[in-house]
């Protein structure tokens, strides 16, 4: 597949995934903020609004502002720029599935980074999965994109099929 087509795929996935993330976060703010959590599937899936100023599971949320600025704004910007450059410059040798995975990671990072810039470093989270006391941390759609992209790349590496597709 030509690199232009793969780059186009990357951009389509990015715009679609970031758009989906924005819509779900706006819906969560509108319908879940200041409300009691909503529970589905015998409490396996919960919707509960929270704003996170840290990383995963609020890691670093109480660090000094300067530390959080560098680790949660500047470092992610540089990382996303490197990921974008890597994806574009290596589009010819990357498979479609690898480009898709990289686009998902990029999209999730961009979605959460957008919140940090627009909303005073507060990233809306609103989903929790689990049963009993075994539960995930609270997360959002951007986190799902990042996780899905990492899982796909990991599976390709483990299966030795990184050149497939």
- Gap between N and C termini, in Å? 9 Å
Count of helical segments?
4
**What is the approximate shape?**
globular
Structural class: alpha+beta
Proportion in helices: 55-70%
Alpha-carbon Rg, integer: 17 Å
Q: Which residue ranges are poorly predicted, with pLDDT under 50 across at least 5 consecutive positions? A: none
Overall number of strands: 4
Strand order of the largest sheet: 1-2-3-4
Strand content range: 5-15%
Mean pLDDT: 91
Give me the strand/helix succession: HEEHHEEH
Overview of this structure, please?
This protein is of the alpha+beta class and 165 residues long. The chain has one domain (3-159). It has helices spanning 3-31, 65-89, 96-118, 141-159; strands spanning 38-40, 45-52, 123-131, 134-135. A four-stranded antiparallel β-sheet has the order 1-2-3-4. Strand 3 and strand 4 (134-135) form a beta hairpin. Helix 1 runs parallel beside helix 3 (96-118) and helix 3 (96-118) runs antiparallel to helix 4 (141-159). The longest helix is centred in the first third of the chain and has 29 residues, at 3-31. The termini are close together. The model has no long low-confidence stretch (mean pLDDT 91).
Describe the structure concisely for a colleague.
Helices cover 58% and strands 13% of the residues. The protein has four helices and four strands; from the N terminus they run H-E-E-H-H-E-E-H. It has helices at residues 3-31, 65-89, 96-118, 141-159; strands at residues 38-40, 45-52, 123-131, 134-135.
């Amino acid at each position: 597949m030509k690199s232009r087509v793969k780059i186009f795929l990357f951009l389509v996935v990015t715009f679609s995934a970031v758009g989906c993330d924005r819509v779900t976060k706006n819906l969560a703010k509108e319908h879940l903020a200041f409300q009691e959590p909503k529970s589905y599937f015998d409490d396996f899936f919960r919707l509960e609004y929270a704003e996170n100023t840290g990383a995963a599971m609020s890691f670093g949320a109480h660090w000094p502002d300067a530390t959080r600025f560098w680790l949660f704004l500047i470092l992610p910007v540089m990382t996303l720029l490197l990921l974008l450059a890597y994806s574009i410059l290596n589009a010819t040798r990357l498979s479609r599935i690898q480009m898709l995975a990289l686009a998902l990671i990029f999209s999730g990072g961009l979605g959460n980074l957008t919140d940090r810039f627009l909303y005073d470093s507060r990233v809306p989270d609103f989903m929790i999965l689990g049963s009993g006391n075994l539960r995930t941390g609270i997360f959002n759609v951007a986190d799902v994109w990042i996780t899905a992209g990492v899982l796909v790349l990991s599976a390709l590496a483990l299966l030795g099929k990184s050149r497939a597709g």
